């Protein structure tokens, strides 16, 4: 389950449900409602070892990871 500090209103293609759906591209991304102090949290169903987290909106694009995340 995903929770966040807030989701930008008026941007139907940037829903919180898309933050970890496994799909790529602008149409499957989440946008916070603020540029500062935003956060997103993924609650796992059971304890699990996580060895890597990758932030990206555009798999294979020419943008850098920070550009993809809006920073």
Q: What can you tell me about this protein's structure?
A:
With 71 residues, this protein is low in regular secondary structure. It contains one helix and two strands. It has one helix at residues 65-68, and strands at residues 2-4, 40-42. Strands 1-2 form a two-stranded antiparallel ribbon. The longest helix is centred in the last third of the chain and has 4 residues, at 65-68. It is globular.
First-residue to last-residue Cα separation:
25 Å
Strands of the biggest beta sheet: in what spatial order? Answer: 1-2
Kindly provide the radius of gyration, computed on alpha-carbon positions and rounded to a whole number of angstroms.
12 Å
- Give the overall shape, derived from the CA principal axes: globular
Tally of helical runs = 1
Q: What fraction of residues sit in β-strands?
A: 5-15%
Judged by helices, strands and strand pairing, the structural class is little secondary structure
Low-confidence stretches: none
Secondary structure: number of strands: 2
Task: Give the ordered list of helices and strands.
Answer: EEH
Described by strand count, sense and barrel closure, the largest sheet is:
2 strands, antiparallel
Helix content percent band: under 10%
Round the mean pLDDT to the nearest integer and report it. Answer: 82
Descriptive labels:
71 residues; little secondary structure; two-stranded antiparallel ribbon; 1 helix
